[in-house]
Design a protein that fits this description.
Structural class: mainly alpha
GO cellular component, one term: GID complex
Number of helices: 9
Shape: globular
Subcellular location: Cytoplasm; Nucleus
Number of strands: 0
Keywords: Cytoplasm, Nucleus, Repeat
Largest sheet: none
Distance between the termini: 34 Å
InterPro entries: ARM-like (IPR011989), ARM-type_fold (IPR016024), Armadillo (IPR000225), ARMC8/Vid28 (IPR038739)
Protein name: Armadillo repeat-containing protein 8
Helix content: 55-70%
């Protein structure tokens, strides 16, 4: 990801044009998969707050919101320092809030996968899981309805 290309895609994360936003998210996702260096660049470029804005935005398409969670899940597989950035940004809380708003199975699975990855780190705060009875109810409902979750 060079600076010029990065700037173009970062700018498109802020557009109201869903097609351009999705394309930018897809570019970010593909660039960070398997690369802690690229994950570090995404965090350093301040993209994390934008992802957290996109996640609950009901004006965004389900594909955009799914792509956002997948990116967060990939970032959660980064270095300990990178995951600490996610914890400091309260990513688990944002994902649980999105999880409560959406019943689409792929989205639910991506949310739970990301949350589980983050909560494996000792500096993660597990209390968020128990902070809202709605989270517990939705988790139980998900267990009852899904073999993979």
């Amino acid at each position: 990801m060079n600076a010029e290309t990065s700037r173009y895609y970062i700018d498109n994360l802020y557009t109201q044009d869903n097609a351009k936003c999705y394309q930018a998210l897809n570019f970010v996702k593909n660039s960070i998969m398997g690369s802690n260096r690229q994950k570090g660049m995404v965090i350093a470029n301040g993209i994390l707050p934008r992802l957290l804005q996109v996640l609950p935005d009901q004006t965004k398409t389900p594909d955009i919101r799914l792509e956002t969670v997948v990116i967060l899940g990939s970032l959660a597989k980064g270095s300990e320092e990178q995951v600490k950035s996610l914890v400091d940004a309260n990513v688990v809380t944002y994902i649980f809030n999105a999880f409560l708003m959406d019943d689409e199975p792929k989205f639910t699975e991506a949310c739970l996968r990301c949350i589980c990855t983050i909560l494996q780190f000792p500096f993660s705060d597990y209390s968020v899981v128990f902070s809202d009875a709605a989270i517990i109810r939705k988790l139980i409902k998900t267990i009852e309805e899904s073999i993979s979750n």
